[in-house]
Amino acid sequence: MPIQQAVQVRAATLQEDALIAEHFYQMWLDNHVAPDAIIAHWQETVLQFTQQARRKLDYQAFVAQSGDRLVGSVGCQRFAGLYPQILTASERCDGYIWGVYVEPTFRRQGIATQLTKYAIAHLKAIGCTHAVLNASPFGKPLYTQLGFVEGNVMRLDLR
């Protein structure tokens, strides 16, 4: 069992975008994605995405800090959608939570829960009616505990 360490969650600064990108990359590795399955310019791609999301989708990231060290992060934004949006915002304005990551030695201390709660609060503040995310097998129990329910997404492997 890891030693409990004091951690503070706060809004991330622009200067921390590169670290958040690194956490996003590490999250995929921790979920057993092979490094050669990740594009070589992953960091630039994440940074460009977050810059655009910040401008157009009310993107906000949050970080967990222990002393001088950032040990976790999450990003969230209004969801741009996969198809034309014809419902009013009061009926459906989804917010998306992504990249929840906590360094291994800081896990099982409630940090991912805190990060996710901050993301949920941000999505509420920008007028979202729902929060959605894609859960890893590791994260599912946490999100269920926070009230997320599995939806009707169906997937077919085309490889």
TrEMBL record:
CDD domains the record matches: NAT_SF
Domain N-acetyltransferase: 7-159
Kinase is among the record's keywords: no
Keyword set, alphabetical order: Acyltransferase, Transferase
Keyword Hydrolase: no
InterPro entries in UniProt: Acyl_CoA_acyltransferase (IPR016181), Bact_Acetyltransf (IPR050832), GNAT_dom (IPR000182)
Any one GO MF annotation of this record: acyltransferase activity, transferring groups other than amino-acyl groups
Pfam families documented for this protein: Acetyltransf_1 (PF00583)
Protein name as annotated: GNAT family N-acetyltransferase
